[in-house]
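Pinned message: reference record for Purine nucleoside phosphorylase
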Amino acid sequence: MLAIIGGRGLTELANLKITHRQVMRTPFGEPSCAFLFGTLNEHEVIFLARHGYGYTIPPHLVNYRANLWALREQGVNEVISVTTVGGIRGDLTPGLLVVPDQVIDYTHGRDCTFFNSRNTSYKNIDFTQPYDAVMRARILHSARQVQQPCLDGGTYAATQGPRLDSVAEVNRYERDGADMVGMTGMPEAALARELDMAYASIAVVVNYAAGRGDSQFAINMESVNATARSAMVRVRTILERVCTD
Ligand code: HPA
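Predicted structure (tokens):
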């Protein structure tokens, strides 16, 4: 069973035929909102709006553990996360879609593991390749099939937010090897791995990161939202195809 976790610009999936919605509870609290169960191109999927339907939950307050735990409980073993990012690398311009292959975690204070007790056994998950290779290939293949350009690979810097970055911070991420910056990629990817779910991400570049391109002095949130909205039309086309392949 496939789940899609949507972010900015994707709080609903217009092409999803909804069969029912359900409020979930977990030992870690409640997910961001009710799960939408439905079909995309005749394939069963669950859709979850990461920030809630009203887009009210900031990235550092998303209950990532509850989201993934509840999905797992519903039999989900594949997750496609849709996130928005600022482009650091020169060719990552607003509107571009990327399927990242690496991550650097700059977040702090988030509940980043299910192994949070001194009294139960734990495992050190392998995170050499943080995103599932098969799921990445599936997304890229589907994007080609529907003729939507989608870049293969890139390093995602996960920052704490909810504020955007300073120029010096973006310069540091770049020195560290990051190509794009967003706020929700972690701990989501690691938690999915802890639950043995195949997880990959479609990152939508919605702005130049601070100090890059036209973001020398400020990032225009109106244009961020407009870029996100229009890019999500293309993301939906890819997701529909992923379900068919
Ligand atoms: N920085 C951090 N997170 C983001 C950005 C950004 O520029 N754009 C979208 N999410």
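Pinned by admin. Summary line: The two ends are 14 Å apart (CA to CA).
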